Input
Amino acid sequence: MIKQTLFVIATLASALALAGCGTSTAPTGSASSAPAASAQKASADADEAPERIPADMLVDGTYEITVDSSSSMFRIVHAELTVENGQMTCAMTLGGTGYEKLFMGTSDEAATASDDQCYFFVEGANGAYTYTVPVEALDEECDCAAFSIRKQKWYDRTLVFESDNLPESAYRTA
Output
C-alpha cells in the first residue's frame, strides 16, 4: 500500500512539474521604445532561436550573463561579458577545477593548436577557475574544447553566451 501511495504522489508531482513546460509569456512593454535587437527578440516566436547579437549592437561595458553548456561536466556558475571597442570577451567561472585550458573550437582543432591559442584558468581567492575567452556573438552556438587535467585529453563542448539578462541600456540605439 505504501508503494502505491508513493507511486501516486510521484506521478502527481511529475505531472504538476511538467504542466508549466512549453508555455511562454509575451514580454511587457512597448516594442517601439526598445532597441532593434530587443524588439526582434520580443516578436520572435517561442520556438524560434533568438537572432545572434554581435558586439557592434552593444554599448561598451561589463554585464553579467548566463552561458549555457552542452555538458553537465562543464558547468558555468558565473559569467561576465565585457564589450569594448567592438570586441567581446567573457570571464567564465566553472563549478569545478578539472580543466587546465580551453580552446575556442573543436577538440580536433585544439589537439593541433599551440598553447598560445588556448585560454588558461586564473584561480580565484576561493579556488574557483575562471577562463576569459573571446565571444563572436551572443545567442548562437559556438564550439569550445576543454582539456581535462585528470584524463589529459580534449573534450568537445558547445556553449551559448545568452543575451536574456542584458539590460535595455546595453543595446545601441539606431
Summary: The first strand starts at residue 53 and ends at 54. Residues 1-45 have pLDDT under 50 and may be disordered. The chain is about 20% helix and 35% strand. Residues 7 and 170 are 49 Å apart (CA to CA).
